[in-house]
Amino acid sequence: MDSNGFPPSTIQTKHLACFVHGVPGSAIGRYLYSNYIYRLSDRFIKRQKKEDLKFIGRRLENRGWGVQLFVFLYTLMPLPSTPLFTAAGIARVKTLNIIPAFFAGKFISDTVMVITGDYVARNIVSIIHGLLTWKTLVGTIVGLLVICLFLFINWRKLLEEKKIRLSFNIWK
Predict the structure, then answer these.
(1) Which residues are registered as beta bridge partners of 45?
(2) How far apart are CA 90 and CA 101, in angstroms?
(3) In this predicted structure, what is the pLDDT of residue 2?
(4) Which residues touch 172 (CB under 8 Å, ≥6 apart)?
(5) What does the angle CA 27 – CA 63 – CA 143 come to, to the nearest 5 degrees?
(6) CA nearest to 153, candidates 68, 87, 78, 75
(7) pLDDT tens digits, residue range 146-163?
(8) What is the pLDDT, as a whole number, of residue 9?
(9) d(CA 102, CA 68)
(10) How far apart are the first and last CA of the chain?
């Protein structure tokens, strides 16, 4: 028995069920999402930004394993995958090409998250005392900056002219 009174195999079974159902469900959901998001983008995203995303999509489709590596590394980070699949959907990237890397990265990151969640649940009192620290604030700010980078950078200028330009006017 562990400290919660469960046999060790029960906890492992719970974790395994989470991965077996959660990761394929997430992959299927992202696939469906990316195949329909471009329809919504027509209503909410400016034409110029959609053109930039389509340009990125064309560039990504010709990169082979580099795209797979990027998607894999992206899904290992504790960032939401929605921006990745939103951009892929609007850019009309063939989602089936990036799902294997997403699946592998998601499986690993979900494993880390479930094990971490189990640890936190067992040690909640000691964790609460260090909840708001400079490290959590820096992590939150860095995460927000990465998301803003994907949204506000002018990818066409960067990839064609090697110049970084920011455009904050992306909404209709």
Answers:
(1) 171
(2) 19
(3) 56
(4) 43, 44, 45, 46
(5) 55
(6) 87
(7) 877 777 888 778 778 888
(8) 46
(9) 8
(10) 58
pTM for the model stands at 0.61
pLDDT band at 3 (very low <50, low <70, confident <90, very high): low
pLDDT tens sequence across 56-94? 777 666 667 778 888 898 888 877 888 888 888 887 788
N residues, the chain: 172
Site of tokens 């079974």 = 13
DSSP character string of 114-169: HHHHHHHHHSHHHHHTTSS-HHHHHHHHHHHHHHHHHHHB-HHHHHHH----B---
Helix locations, 47-133, DSSP H: 47-61, 65-76, 82-90, 99-122, 124-128
Q: What is the DSSP letter of 45?
A: B
- Burial profile 33-46: b = 16 or more Cβ within 10 angstroms, e = fewer: bbbebbeebeeebe
Q: Of 33, 98, 35, 109, nearest to 71 (Cα)?
A: 98
149: its two tokens:
């980078």
